[in-house]
From TrEMBL:
Residues 1-58 form the HTH lysR-type domain. GO terms for molecular function: DNA binding; DNA-binding transcription factor activity. GO terms for cellular component: cytosol. Belongs to the LysR transcriptional regulatory family. This is LysR family transcriptional regulator. Keywords: DNA-binding, Transcription, Transcription regulation. PROSITE patterns: HTH_LYSR.
Length: 320
């Protein structure tokens, strides 16, 4: 059994077929098939079930895949650590961010990473909170920005700030900038499906406040929700980042009585310790989040030490 064979097995599983994996791994498909056949012969067990539309792991294949992924990740992290021993982080770092916050986060993260850590190759996954959470749990990314850390298993999370939720829809001039949850729930709403954390958080708050809540429409994508709101066909309940891009022409009213909030955190898998490079990038992303909150571009309230004045953090009195 060789490390190359383990990498090929991982590539096939993650690509879903031999043909796709051969293109990703830059190896001819017959040669790739031969390497897996040699591995199966050595172990005397079938690892992959070849099907007309791809592959499926056998029980033995699933066990080996999990071990292989951990082994390869560990070896790659050791190589990165050795390269970084001179003080400059090097290697590959993968992170996940919520798709609805990509316009705020992605340019800032990439710009700062290029300036401060040119030796790091960065991959950023932007997707639904469910997808980002699963990527963190499975160790597919080094860490991520998540609104649902409390729902994830076997992760270490660092809360950064809380964000309020807003009712978004057509409002007459002079309308107050706040709205009760009961008033918001009485409007015609388009909401994301229950598979998304935002919807579950809204329904949890409504249940705790004994407020009836029903969605007239369900729509998974933020652009789809925004199109219905801008057309005046429905209102929605949203966190702040989409408001600055997708929902800008409409009025946003912060929900009170009760206030609905979510905690934005940095999280990583307990089974995948952060490399030196990943730790540097996590510190960078933390600073990006704090700066966005302090500037008002992401409406929220910092938690703990992040919210303390600089004087108290440093233990000195700053001259003014």
């Amino acid at each position: 059994m060789t490390l190359k064979q383990l990498r090929y097995l991982i590539a096939i599983v993650e690509a879903g077929s031999f043909s796709s994996a051969s293109r990703r791994a830059y190896i001819a498909q017959p040669a790739l098939s031969r390497q897996i056949s040699l591995l199966e012969s050595e172990l005397e067990m079938q690892l992959l079930d070849r099907q007309h539309d791809g592959i499926a792991l056998t029980d033995a294949g699933r066990q080996l895949y999990e071990v292989a992924r951990q082994v390869v990740q560990k070896l790659d992290s050791v190589k990165d650590e050795l390269k970084s021993s001179r003080g400059d982080p090097k290697g590959h770092v993968a992170i996940s961010i919520p798709a609805t916050a990509a316009d705020l986060l992605l340019p800032e993260i990439v710009r700062r990473a290029e300036q401060r850590f040119p030796g790091v190759t960065l991959t950023v996954w932007d997707g639904l909170s469910r997808e980002g959470g699963q990527a963190i749990e499975l160790g597919k990314v080094d860490f991520g920005v998540v609104p649902n850390a409390e729902e994830l298993e076997h992760v270490e999370a660092e809360p950064i700030f809380t964000e309020a939720l807003y009712w978004v829809g057509a409002s007459a001039p002079g309308t107050p900038d706040t709205i009760t949850l009961a008033e918001a729930a009485a409007t015609r709403l388009v909401l994301p499906p229950r598979t998304l954390h935002l919807r579950r958080r809204i329904e949890q708050a409504a249940m705790e406040a004994a407020v009836p809540l029903a969605a007239a429409y369900e729509q998974q994508s933020a652009p789809g929700i925004a199109s219905l709101v801008r057309a005046g066909l429905a209102a929605t309940i949203s966190n702040w980042p989409p408001l600055s891009v997708l929902l800008e022409p409409t009025a946003a009213r912060r929900i009170v009585e009760p206030r609905i909030s979510r905690t934005i955190a940095l999280a990583h898998s307990q089974h995948k310790p952060l490399s030196f490079a990943a730790g540097c990038l996590r510190d960078l992303v933390r600073s990006v989040l704090i700066d966005l909150v302090n500037s008002g571009r992401w409406r929220g309230e910092l938690i703990g030490k992040e919210a303390e004045p600089l004087e108290s953090v440093l233990g000195v009195q700053l001259a003014v």
